Amino acid sequence: MWALNQLKTAATSISRFAAPDSLRTLYSYNVQNGWVPSKSPLQTAASGSNTATYQPFALLTWNVDFVRPLIHERFQAALSHLEELLSPQKVTPAPQPTIIFMQEVHSSCFEVLLASDFIREFYEPTNISSLQKYSTLTLVPKSLVSQVACVQRTPFTGATVMDRDCLYVDLHVRLPATPEQKALRLRIANTHLESLGFGLEARSTQLQRISGLLTETGIDGGFVAGDMNAISEADNALPEQYGLTDAWKEEHFTPTDIVDSSGTGEIEGHTWGYQPPAQFPPDRLDKILVVGKLAAVDVQRVGVGLKVKDTDTWVSDHYGLLAKIVLRM
């Protein structure tokens, strides 16, 4: 059961990034050495000296489900689907560089990830292994790596019984169109909030902490995306309560009495409950929440109806979300 006394204590404090020596790096692949740490972002994080020119980008977030059978086959199918959507070698005209957030990546799936030619050529991951059975993973396009100032995984200490955390990437960019080439620091967050009904109080605390880091002094804008496990009306009220804007709601306001007839919850924006049908009603569990000078537009779902080839197995029980990220100046 949830330790209420710990949770209430944790709710009173907003966590801050750890000391620079605990900051993480990205990883890059080369034929000679395999996967190795990229040039460390720590100097950038400490001095802000290496500020790259802002480049527009997109976001794709997806819970890839660590529970069901055929875990490696499903993960490979997910990667193949991402390649079909995002690879400049397969899409014409070439899509915007797209940061990928994944949740529920099984520890054994890193072998599949790191063997992918698509990932090797176009992405740098935040981690190449995990000590947990499943975890979050962020993949940064190589064309955006110069914008990365730091990478930080922050546990929800005292506010989780499921070892959940939030994975942050800071982007430090300058705007060439402004007279002073103004610099901006943007913070993006990948998370998987606490599950199930007893996690409501935990989810509130977790999102409050994330909001605190997205809006702290020196951060010009940001977003958090992932599996918010929003299974109740109280969950749906949390983003506004903590000063975050729900990107799907901004674009797709739907009266509550309208029900989608497609069988996939398209009108409502549902991201879970169809693959397969579950004991709980379908809902919009996955979200992109923005704040400050960042917005998410053209939000659409991905992975709808996707199955592993030659099987009747869904790739994931969740749909993913794909959106363009734009600056609001």
TrEMBL record:
Q: Where in the cell is it found?
A: Nucleus, PML body
Q: Which Pfam families match?
A: Exo_endo_phos
GO BP annotations of the record are: double-strand break repair
Q: Which UniProt keywords apply?
A: DNA damage, DNA repair, Endonuclease, Hydrolase, Magnesium, Metal-binding, Nuclease, Nucleus
User: Can you tell which superkingdom this protein's organism belongs to?
Assistant: Eukaryota
Q: Name one GO molecular function term.
A: single-stranded DNA binding
Keyword Nucleus present in the record's keywords: the answer is yes
- Cofactor(s) in the UniProt record: Mn(2+); Mg(2+)
The membrane-spanning stretches of this chain are: none
Gene3D superfamilies of this UniProt entry? Endonuclease/exonuclease/phosphatase
**Major location (coarse):** nucleus
Q: Where is the Endonuclease/exonuclease/phosphatase domain?
A: 60-318
Q: Name one GO cellular component term.
A: cytoplasm
Query: In the UniProt record, does the keyword Metal-binding occur?
Result: yes
Q: What is this protein called?
A: Endonuclease/exonuclease/phosphatase
| Gene source species | Favolaschia claudopus
Q: What is the lineage of its organism?
A: Eukaryota, Fungi, Dikarya, Basidiomycota, Agaricomycotina
